[in-house]
Automatic annotation (TrEMBL):
Pathway terms, separated by semicolons: Amino-acid biosynthesis; L-proline biosynthesis; L-glutamate 5-semialdehyde from L-glutamate: step 1/2; Amino-acid biosynthesis; L-proline biosynthesis; L-glutamate 5-semialdehyde from L-glutamate: step 2/2
Record-stated family: In the C-terminal section; belongs to the gamma-glutamyl phosphate reductase family.
Signal peptide: none
This protein's UniProt keywords: Amino-acid biosynthesis, ATP-binding, Kinase, Multifunctional enzyme, NADP, Nucleotide-binding, Oxidoreductase, Proline biosynthesis, Transferase
NCBIfam families tied to this protein: PRK00197.1, proA
Database matches in InterPro entries: Ald_DH/histidinol_DH, Ald_DH_C, Ald_DH_N, Aldehyde_DH_dom, G-glutamylP_reductase_CS, GPR_dom
Limits of the Aldehyde dehydrogenase domain: 11-203
Protein name per UniProt: Aldehyde dehydrogenase domain-containing protein
Length: 317
């Protein structure tokens, strides 16, 4: 999964360029009036977008994150300090050079700085008078460490423990397509499915058996929760709060939609979760009660993406 995150092939470079063009083509967000209210005669209150200031973004593994972060910072008028992982240092250095080389002199090439030494982070985290926001993008350990070391506001995002719940009324052909896409398309991504929850009435049915066979054909290793381990004789999972980032996932059976919601809110990471069902009431309950950033009905978790949402890019938050 580490190699998959670090690799920059031609197709990925092309899609990165396209996402930057999409951001460039967007309406300028700065000085855009969101709301205008006359609170009293001749006293007008305006709410506007404005830059945050200087951002320090610390990220792991993926060099394409540098490109997306830089494009978003430039577009939104923010200064930026970037610290990538040592495993992608050469890629990050070249990408930073490419980006700063095209920033016009009127803006200044120092708008985006690249921090190369890990030792410098501790000093930067003390600069609460200069840096306005820190965004650590990586493991739980990284996020926790950054929060403990600074007075600067921290916007933390870590795990991508995404769930797909197949309800008893689900169209199983649709379920098969969604689950395969969510798990197999790009397993190393933070929006890939890590846990498959299935209504207990679907256990030992032809539709579920067919789905499990397809996952096995693709090379997906399935680990079971207590119920799935007993009934399907698959290896038992050590923890429900686990991000594989590879061709593996957890499977567990639940009693109903409420049990699925409770499971997700307890063990998930509030990233992206999906329900597959033809029952509108179950779908509405799921969409309203799952406490995640993105909640989908009959759509793959892989659709949680800044480009897909028409935002050009996003930083996983």
């Amino acid at each position: 999964s580490l190699v998959a995150r670090m690799t920059l092939k031609a197709g990925k470079i092309t899609s990165l360029a396209e996402s930057i063009r999409a951001i460039a083509d967007m309406e300028d967000p700065i000085s855009h009036t969101l709301k205008k209210t006359e609170v009293a005669k001749d006293l007008v209150f305006e709410k506007m977008y404005c830059p945050l200031g200087v951002l320090l973004i610390i990220f792991e593994s993926r060099p394409d994150a540098l490109v997306q972060i830089a494009a978003l910072a430039i577009r939104s008028g923010n200064g930026l300090l970037l610290k990538g992982g040592k495993e992608a240092m050469k890629s990050n250095t070249i990408l930073h050079k490419v980006i700063t080389s095209v920033i016009p002199d009127v803006v200044g090439k120092k708008l985006i700085g690249l921090v190369k030494s890990k030792d410098e982070i501790a000093d930067l985290l003390k600069l609460d008078d200069v840096i306005d926001l820190v965004i650590p993008r990586g493991s739980n350990r990284l996020v926790s460490q950054i929060k403990a070391q600074t007075k600067i506001p921290v916007l933390g995002h870590a795990d991508g423990i995404c769930h797909v719940y197949i309800d008893k009324s689900a169209d199983m052909d649709m379920a098969k397509r969604i689950v395969l896409d969510a798990k197999v398309d790009y397993p190393a991504a933070c929006n890939a499915m890590e846990t498959l929850l299935v209504h207990k009435d679907l256990n030992k049915t032809e539709g579920l058996d067919d789905l499990l066979m397809e996952l096995a054909k693709e090379g997906v290793v399935i680990y079971g929760g207590p119920v799935a381990h007993d009934t399907l004789k698959v290896p038992k999972v050590d923890s429900f709060h686990h991000e594989y980032s590879s061709m593996a996932c957890t499977l567990e059976f639940v009693d109903d939609v409420q049990s699925a919601i409770d499971h997700i809110n307890r063990y998930g990471s509030a990233h992206t979760d999906c329900i597959i069902t033809t029952d509108k009431k179950s779908a509405d309950t799921f969409l309203q009660q799952v406490e995640s950033a993105a909640v989908f009905h009959n759509a793959s978790t892989r659709f949680c993406d800044g480009t897909r949402f028409g935002l050009g890019a996003e930083v996983g938050i």
